[in-house]
Structures are given as C-alpha cells and as structure tokens.
Design brief:
Homotetramer. This protein has helices at about 15-20, 30-50, 70-90, 155-165, 235-245, 260-270, 290-305, 335-340; strands spanning about 60-65, 70, 90-95, 105, 115-120, 130-140, 175-180, 185-190, 195-200, 205-210, 220-225, 255, 275-280, 310, 330-335. It has about 350 residues and is an alpha+beta fold. An eight-stranded mixed sheet has the order 4-3-5-6-7-8-9-10, with helices on both faces. The termini are far apart. Bound molecules: 6-O-phosphono-alpha-D-fructofuranose.
Length: about 350
C-alpha cells in the first residue's frame, strides 16, 4: 500500500488542506476557504495565461479607489475572488484593493472568516506578460463587529466591516499569494511554516513543490525602484550606497533585481535571500504598498520562513490598520539585510 505522504513534496494542495484539518491545524470552515482560494487562483491563472488572446489586456475604462486605471483583468480577477469567497459559504467580510469599502457577505455573515486580498497585483505588467500575483490574508471575524442586518443601516454595517478588517497582521490565521509567471506557484502559511505548490496544468491541481521554505539569513540582492533615489531619506541613501560596496560585512557588491511586481520580487527574495523594499519618500512618506492586503500577509509569510517584514522602524505585523487602504513603507526579506536597513532609519 502507498503510505499516505505526511504532506511532503508531491502532495496535492487539496490533500494538504485535508491533512491540515485532520491534524487540527485548521478547522473545516477554514479548509473550505483555502480550497476556494485555490480555485480562484486556478481561474485567474487561466485568464492571465490567455490575456493577450482573449482581448483582456488594456484598461477597463474605470479607476479604482487608489485612482489607478483598472485593467480588465483587475476587474475580472476581483470578481473571481469575490464569487468563490461568497460561494464558499464561510466568508463573512471581504476587503479588496479593488473595492472602495469592505463588503459584508450577508447570507452567511456571522462568526465566519474575514478575507483581505489584492486579486491581481502588478497588473500594469500584464500587457508585457511580466509576472503578476494574487495576495490574500485570512482573519477570524471579530464577534464585536458583526452587523445586525435587521437594524443596522448601511453606514453602521460599513463601519462594523471596516472595524472587522482593520486587524493587525499578528492576528492573521493564514497568508498566501499565487504568482502567475513562468510557472504558477501558490505559496501559503497557516502559521506552521511556508509551503509552495506548483500548478500542474495537465492535472489542473497545485502540487507541493516547496516544503518548508526558509529565507536565507543573508542574500546579496536588493530589489528597490532606484528611480526614486533622489527622493529617499539620507539614511536610506546611505544604506543603498553601502550595499553597492558590499554592505555590512563588505565583500562582493550586491546585485540589483527589480521586476516591478511585488509577488515576483517577493518570491525571488524569500527563495534566494536579500531585501525587497518600497520605501516612503519625500513625495509619498508612506510609500506605495498597502498594509492590509500586501505588506501584512507578505510579512507573515516572510516571518514564518525566518525572514523579517518591517516599515524601517516597526514590525509590520504589529501595526493596527486605521484605514482599509492604508499604505506603509515596506522592507522585507533576509533578516540580516532588513535589520541592517533598520539601523540606518
Ligand atoms: P513602481 C505594482 O503596481 C505594485 O503595486 C507592486 O506590485 C510593485 O512592487 C510596485 O507597485 C512597483 O511600483 O513605482 O516601482 O512601479
């Protein structure tokens, strides 16, 4: 008889979820949400792979709450995530980069899960077929924020939903991303290490390819948009200049790698080591990336893999969001590079 693998390389994502439930690392409700997210990622992977063919590149003619032109695939990917989460019957509130305000899923609302996500980050790269990704985080619903749909007016419902999603990243039960690149890789943590699953298109299932990912303690790669150098703080300029002459311990200068798509830059950083950063600058003191559905989930993954996620002066996971689309300066990757950066800030 083939012994049931204990969740090692080669394990299908669906099987891994069931194993986590059997080992009581997650409950049945969360297992359903994780499975639904896997479905959303497969659907988006299929759309992204065919974007140029199915006439889905180009703008959707609208702007999102960030004032960014929405690409057709942004809108479609958001619909995909919202639909699978609603249909999972286990999601109470969803907050998306593409939604102005969090959305209460009324038919099942009540003590279920809060899911925050960026359905297709880096979508400005779609027309050039550069890697993009979906990012998500899952929280326990805060029972004190559950609207009373019978008596609360829409403003009260919205207020309670915002309170429910504005939880510190340290509360995250799960964080993950799916990278749509030369291969489609779903990376996830439920608080017990980080696992990577590569989509096998011949089977239509994610298969574990990376067991217990660990970020190297150091890595001589930095990933910043140096076009913003002139607007950076003196401390950050000194840090970057140091990396170009070997960094804290000297030696070989660091290499620059910048895709301009968070999920691609992050995935390379946790596998190869080094640091990815999107600092604040004179024009945008809080940088560009959003705390709730980009920096916090990525920081949970980084920490679970032995790395660090920092604003330069604080641990990202300790920050309590005040607004759903709040931005923070973001530095993530090998603990030595991030700690060295913090010493300049
Ligand atoms: P810049 C993509 O638009 C994104 O949100 C992240 O995926 C990416 O890391 C960053 O912005 C790139 O920003 O200013 O370097 O083009």
């Amino acid at each position: 008889a083939v012994a049931a693998r204990a969740g090692g390389v080669g394990t299908p994502y669906t099987t891994w979820i069931l194993q986590q439930e059997m080992q009581e690392n997650i409950d049945g409700e969360l297992a359903v949400v994780l499975s639904s997210i896997g479905l959303a990622c497969k659907q988006i992977a299929s759309l992204v792979q065919r974007a140029g063919l199915a006439g889905m590149t180009g703008l959707a003619g609208e702007q999102n709450v960030q004032g960014e032109d929405q690409k057709k695939l942004d809108v479609i990917s958001n619909d995909v995530f919202c639909n699978v989460l609603r249909q999972s019957g286990r999601t109470g509130v969803i907050a998306s980069e593409e939604e102005d305000v969090p959305v209460a899923v009324e038919e099942t609302y009540g003590g279920n899960y809060v899911v925050v996500f960026d359905p297709l980050d880096g979508s400005s790269n779609i027309d050039a077929a550069v890697s993009t990704g979906s990012i998500w985080g899952i929280y326990e619903s805060d029972s004190s924020c559950i609207p009373d749909f019978g008596s609360d007016d829409s403003a009260k419902v919205e207020e309670k939903c915002v309170m429910n999603v504005c939880q510190p990243g340290s509360n995250l039960l799960c964080a993950g991303y799916c990278m749509y690149s030369s291969s489609t890789i779903l990376v996830i943590t439920i608080g017990q290490g980080v696992f990577g699953f590569t989509l096998d298109p011949t089977v239509g299932e994610f298969i574990m390819s990376h067991e217990n990912i660990k970020v190297p303690d150091s890595g001589k790669i930095y990933s910043f948009n140096e076009g913003n150098y002139a607007m950076w703080s003196d401390g950050l300029k000194k840090y970057m200049d140091s990396l170009k002459t070997g960094g804290k311990d000297g030696g070989k200068p660091y290499s620059a790698r910048y895709i301009g798509s968070l999920v691609g830059d992050f995935h390379r950083t946790i596998l190869y080591g080094g640091i990815y950063g999107y600092p604040g600058d004179a024009k945008n003191p809080n940088g560009k990336l959003r705390l709730l559905y980009e920096c916090a989930p990525m920081s949970m993954i980084a920490e679970q893999a032995g790395g660090k996620g920092s604003t330069g002066v604080a641990r990202v996971l300790d920050i309590v969001p005040e607004k759903v689309h709040q931005r923070v300066p973001f530095f993530v990757g090998s603990k030595n590079e991030v700690a060295y950066l913090e010493s300049f800030m």
